[in-house]
């Protein structure tokens, strides 16, 4: 019988379609975008694979936005993020949980748009389930 220390985590970072999965705390990742919006991808040394880690709460010390759950680090402290509805944004973490940040067609600007329960998609963040498979949102039974 193997010791827990002998067991190696072999959880796949890619889903069955070959796309990088959106992680959960403790799951493997390549970049912050593979983790939930309140998490970041923590890398150990030069290993390209990291682990999704919960960002720090408001008031904790920080050096970069990515280390805060709110994605807002100001004067070396995690600050509360004021979320945007239907307005300008830089990334999806700037928007309400029911929205995502995307380019406005024909303009060099980004805006928060409503996430979909079903229908066509290009990326996971466009879906309430955070799952876009074969350009179609997978239905989230809890939120839709």
Report what the structure shows:
The protein folds into 2 domains: 10-80, no CATH class; 92-137, no CATH class. The strands form 4 sheets. Strands 1-3-2 form a 3-stranded antiparallel beta sheet, with no helix packed on it. A two-stranded antiparallel sheet has the order 4-5. It has a two-stranded antiparallel ribbon with strand order 6-7. The chain contains no helices and 9 strands. With 144 residues, it is mainly β. Strand 6 and strand 7 form a beta hairpin. Residues 1-14 and 16-20 have low confidence and may be disordered.
What is the helix tally? 0
Q: Please state the average pLDDT score.
A: 80
Number of structural units classed as domains: 2
Described by strand count, sense and barrel closure, the largest sheet is: 3 strands, antiparallel
Unreliable spans: 1-14, 16-20
Count of individual beta strands: 9
Question: How much of the polypeptide forms β-strand, as a percent range?
Answer: 15-25%
Please outline the helices and strands:
Layout: E1 28-29, E2 39-43, E3 50-54, E4 73-74, E5 77-78, E6 99-103, E7 110-114, E8 132-133, E9 136-137
């Amino acid at each position: 019988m193997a010791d827990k220390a002998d067991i190696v985590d072999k959880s796949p970072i890619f889903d069955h379609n070959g796309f990088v999965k959106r992680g959960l705390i403790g799951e493997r990742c390549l970049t912050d975008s593979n983790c939930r919006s309140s998490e970041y991808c923590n890398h150990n040394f030069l290993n390209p694979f990291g682990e999704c880690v919960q960002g720090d709460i408001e008031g904790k010390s920080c050096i970069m936005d990515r280390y805060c759950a709110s994605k807002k680090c100001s004067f070396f402290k995690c600050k509360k993020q004021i979320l945007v509805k239907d307005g300008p944004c830089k990334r999806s973490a700037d928007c309400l949980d029911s929205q995502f940040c995307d380019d406005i067609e024909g303009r060099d600007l980004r805006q928060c748009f409503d996430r979909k329960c079903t229908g066509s998609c290009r990326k996971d963040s466009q879906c309430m389930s955070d799952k876009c498979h074969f350009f179609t949102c997978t239905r989230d039974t809890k939120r839709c």
